[in-house]
Amino acid sequence: MSLRSRLQSTLSPSTPDNYDEMSSLLPPNVSNTSRKKILASYFFDYALLVFFLVVFTTIDAIQPHHQQFTLTNESLWHRFAEHETVPVWLLIVVSVIAPGAIIVIWSLLFERKERKLWEAHCGCLGLALSFAGAVTITACLKNAVGRPRPDFLARCQPDTSKQTPDNVYSMYDATICTVDLGSRIMREAFRSFPSGHSSTAFAGLTYLSFWVGGKTNVLDTRGNVWKCAVVLIPTLAAGLVAASRIMDQRHHGFDVLFGGLIGWGTAWAAYRQYYPALTAKDVVKNEAARQGRLPQGASTGSTTSVRVGEAYPVRTWGTPQRGDLENQEEQEGLGGYEMDREESIGYMAVGRGGGVHGGQGLAAPSAAYAGYAAGPAQYDASTRSKSPVH
């Protein structure tokens, strides 16, 4: 399909799919076929969650790798804390249940009526994906590395009779321990890196920070400091959970830091699967980001676009990416100039303003390109004056 034909099909009001119908949670006027497609598009998300759960459960039951160690390594001499500052049950409540409850309550109270359940669904699904991804990655690394915890020797209770003046600095393996290696306390003794509490806390609470940041439009360039303070509260809570692992002498400092990075990464990846970016550039200039992943053939000029912080309406696997329009420019013989994203949006806007719907749109994009040849300043002035994006 030529670039001009594509512009017509993209901007024409006669497109078969209606974006307004897709922007809400399965409204009554959506056909049963569309409903099934929308619901089926999330099948693999739930399948991936089940896969992560199976992998985590399997790995957790396997003995980890046992690194060798020395009895003179003072970093392994710390006491074993009988009671953790943040036990596992509290970690799940703080990092998963509480964020999920906040997402559901916020969605039901503050979202538009037609989007309440959809926002709650996508928000909780992203949270679950972030959590499942973090614990699975963490479990794999724990078993693969097998690093002793700071309280390892207190768990191990080594047989010091095997140590002689000639081998004080020798490396030992787990056979020197007098505690059963199959016990839970010894299986966990070799799982210091990375910190599971840290990765889990940052996966859930950093995701909540991203989610709240989207809902409050924290990067709207208006300088609302209170928004930043609210958004950073969950991240601060994650930091405190991670710090408790050093306080309890369960992990080395690097274990906690690396675990936090894992959680932050899965939180960001999960959030971006369902929501537009938080950056001010996307908010102000990028119409496609404001509208989310448009269904194929949907009008980019819809008046009911997805706002920043709102979940994408539907998956669009296999549809053209936003950058395809620019990439085809040289192939279509438009002079070899490679437009950037902002210019291409303005280029499309000129086509919209020049009367594409009225049958005059073929000349308008060409005129816009000709205007650029006359000089970037004149091109910018012509496009920005007509584009609704700027």
Would you write up a description of this structure?
With 390 residues, this protein is mainly alpha-helical. It folds into 2 domains: 3-27 and 283-386, no CATH class; 41-275, no CATH class. Helix content is 56%, strand content 0%. It contains 17 helices and no strands. It has helices spanning 3-11, 19-22, 32-40, 43-60, 88-110, 116-145, 152-156, 184-187, 196-216, 225-247, 253-274, 280-284, 287-291, 324-327, 341-353, 363-374, 376-386. The longest helix is centred in the middle third of the chain and has 30 residues, at 116-145. The chain is elongated, with a radius of gyration of 27 Å.
Name the descriptors.
disordered C terminus; 2 domains; mainly alpha; 390 residues; elongated; Phosphatidic acid phosphatase type 2/haloperoxidase domain-containing protein
Number of strands: 0
The dominant shape is elongated
The radius of gyration computed from the alpha-carbon positions, rounded to a whole number of angstroms, is 27 Å
Please give the share of residues in helix.
Answer: 55-70%
- C-alpha end-to-end distance: 29 Å
State the low-pLDDT regions, or none. 1-25, 282-305, 317-390
Q: How does the helix and strand content classify structurally? A: mainly alpha
N to C succession of SSEs: HHHHHHHHHHHHHHHHH
> Main beta sheet, described?
none
Strand content: under 5%
Contiguous helical run count:
17
Total domain count: 2
Compose a concise summary of this entry.
The protein has 390 residues and is an all-alpha fold.
